[in-house]
Amino acid sequence: MQLKLLFSKWTQVAALLLIGGAVAWTIKLGVIIATNGRIIDTGAAALFMKVGLLLLLIGSTGIGNQLSLNRTLMLRIAAIIFSPVVAAGLFLLFAMITKPLLNPLLNNSGVWYAQQEAPIALAVVFFLSMGCLLYRSYKPLASN
After folding, report:
1. What percentage of the chain has pLDDT greater than the value 90?
2. Contacts of 77 by beta carbon, 8 Å cutoff, 6+ apart
3. Which segment of 43-52, 69-78, 80-89, 105-114 scores lowest on mean pLDDT?
4. CB under 8 Å to 101, separation ≥6 — which residues?
5. Of 62, 68, 110, 123, which has the highest C-beta tally within 10 A?
6. For the whole model, what pTM was predicted?
7. What is the pLDDT of residue 143?
8. Domain definitions of the chain by residue range
9. How far apart are alpha carbons 97 and 44 in whole angstroms?
10. How many helices and strands, by DSSP H and E, does the chain display?
11. 134 and 15 in contact (C-beta within 8 Å)?
12. 134: CB partners within 8 A, 6+ apart
């Protein structure tokens, strides 16, 4: 019963971590925009990138936990362990999607860093949405 309670609470905690990671990446994008691309991989932008990435990877385990509800313990553990790998793969997919779409639009633009940061912006929208959905899906266990 205590293991089930731990899994139940983890969904809510992980949702907040996903939201926190998306907010950290939003602040990172804000720093880059505010400095007109002068600070991208150093200082505050680098700090918020690392913090956001860590929060998103840990928070993604809540998605694996939620998707594996009512499954065997081994399947739940596997889903929780491999969900950060899937989250990282999604980020790579976002990079593959945004590059061909934005290259023609931003080729001669003064916002040269937009091509580089577009996958992060798409990831922010996705993971913030997932965090909110995951948080809303949380239902406490009934007391016996």
Report:
1. 49
2. none
3. 105-114
4. none
5. 62
6. 0.85
7. 47
8. 2-137
9. 27
10. 4, 0
11. yes
12. 11, 14, 15, 18, 62, 63, 66
